C-alpha cells in the first residue's frame, strides 16, 4: 500500500493499481481524441432521441393521409438494413487492417463499405421519391413530417460519413497510414458503427412497429 | 499496449479491441452473425403471429436492445473491464438522457391526448 504525503506526492500511479483511473500517467492522444469523439457520438444520440421522441408522439397524426403500413415497403427496408449492417462489418475489418498497417487491405474494405453505404442511401432516396410521388411528402401530415425528419437526418449522417470516407481514404493513399490518419480512421469507424445503432432504432420503431396503435 | 511512442497506458480507447490478433476478426464476424439473427428475428416477429400479437411491440423492443448490445460489445468493443470505465460511464449518461427524452415526451403527450376534449 502506498501513502502519498504532501511533500512526497506521487506523480503517477502504476498502471496495475489504477487502470482507467489515471494509472500509468496521462492517457495518450489517441485515447483522448477517441474519447472526445465518443462524447460527440453520445451527444448526437441525444439529438436523435429528440427526433425519435417527436416521431413516437406524432406517428398517429396522419391527418387523413396514408399511414405507415400503407406506405412502407418492408422488403426494401430489410435490404437497406442488411446493407448498413454488412457495411458496419466491413468498416470494422477495415479499421482492423489500418491498425495493422495494411493500406491495401484497408482500401479494399473501404471500397466495400462505401459501396454498401451508397446502396443503402440509393434505396432510401428511391423510397423517399416514391412516397413524395404518391403525394405523401413531408408536408402531407405531422406523421410524415416526423418520418422524413428522423429518417432523413439519419440519411444525412450516412451521406456525411461516405464523404468523410472518401476524404480519409484519399489521405491513406496520399500520405499513408500515419498516426494522425489512424486517429481519424478510428473516429470514423466509431461514427459509422454508431449510425448502424441508430438505424436499429429506426427500423424497429418506424418500420416494424408501424402496424401497432 | 503501446501507442507508437512505446508508452504504456491504462485507459481503453473507445472502439479499439486491445487483446489483439486473430480473435478480433472472429469477434467482428460473431457480432455480424448475431446482429443478422436479431434483425431477421425482428422482421419475422413483426410480420407473423409467432408472438402473442399484443406482445409484439415488447418483443421488438427487446430484440432492438439485444442488437444494440451486440453492436456495442462486438463492433465498438465496450467491455466490462476497469480500463473501459470512462467509456461506459459516458455511455450510461447518454442512455439516461436518451431514456428521459423519449419516455418523458411519450408519457407527457399521451397524458395530454387523453385529457383532450373530444373533437
List keywords for this structure.
heterodimer, A: 213 residues, mainly alpha, globular, B: 119 residues, 3 helices, disordered N terminus
Describe this structure in words.
The complex is a heterodimer of chains A (213) and B (119). In chain A, 72% of the residues lie in helices and 0% in strands. The N and C termini of chain A lie far apart (61 Å). In chain A, 40% of the residues are buried. The termini of chain B are far apart. The relative contact order of chain B is 0.11. Classes of the chains: A mainly alpha (213), B mainly alpha (119). Chains A and B meet through α1, α3 and α6 of A and α1, α2 and α3 of B.
User: What are the secondary-structure elements of chain B, in order, as H or E?
Assistant: HHH
Number of alpha- plus pi-helical segments of chain A: 6
Based on CA inertia axes, which overall geometry of chain B fits? flat
Report the portion of residues of chain A in β strands: under 5%
Order of helices and strands of chain A: HHHHHH
Largest sheet of chain A: none
On the 0-100 scale, what is the average pLDDT of chain A? 89
Query: What is the global morphology of chain A?
Result: globular
**Oligomeric state of the chains in view:** heterodimer
Taking the alpha carbons of the first and last residues of chain A, their distance comes to 61 Å
| Percent in helix of chain A | over 70%
**Total number of helices of chain B:** 3
Query: Radius of gyration of chain B from the CA trace?
Result: 20 Å
Helix amount of chain B: 55-70%
Largest interface: A-B, 60 and 59 residues
Biggest sheet record of chain B: none
How far the N terminus sits from the C terminus of chain B, by CA atoms, comes to 66 Å
What does the radius of gyration of chain A come to? 22 Å
Mean pLDDT of chain B: 83
